[in-house]
Specification:
The protein is α+β, with helices and mostly antiparallel strands and 128 residues long. It has one domain. It is built from four helices and five strands; from the N terminus they run αββαααβββ. It is globular, with a radius of gyration of 16 Å.
């Protein structure tokens, strides 16, 4: 992921959405599998309809109104935010991932479906 616009000041998450979606159209479609727990998450799915991710809203609600939104501070939102970070990191380190330089490979998360291709048995990511 390279900085495409030197004037960009990402003060709000929707500004990142507007910047990233045209450059990386699959970003919001990537599904992350958590093999240990047997479920999957699409952390950026709401970006498909130009909405903020649920975990992001929960984070802000807890940050600004902790007393009213205490129940939003839960493990599901934490895991969803970590899978969002996982996807962002894969794109940020795209060149290293494609050159088999990301070691060790992630064990907690993996991508599903046609989100990536596996180069070899070491499961190096090729983001399309």
């Amino acid at each position: 992921m390279q900085k495409k616009d030197s004037s960009f000041r990402g003060e709000k998450i929707h500004l990142y959405r507007n910047l990233l979606k045209p450059i990386y159209p699959k970003f919001c479609k990537l599904e992350v599998k958590l093999p240990r727990f047997g479920f999957t998450i699409l952390p950026w799915e709401n970006w498909r309809t130009n909405k903020t991710p649920l975990w992001w809203r929960a984070y802000n609600n807890v940050k600004h109104n902790r007393d009213k939104h205490y129940k939003s501070a839960n493990l599901r939102n934490v895991i969803a935010s970590l899978t969002g970070l996982f996807i962002a990191n894969l794109y940020f380190y795209k060149n290293k991932a494609e050159n088999e330089e990301l070691m060790p490979n992630p064990r907690m998360f993996s991508l599903l479906g046609d989100s990536y291709r596996i180069l070899d048995n070491n499961e190096h990511y090729i983001l399309e």
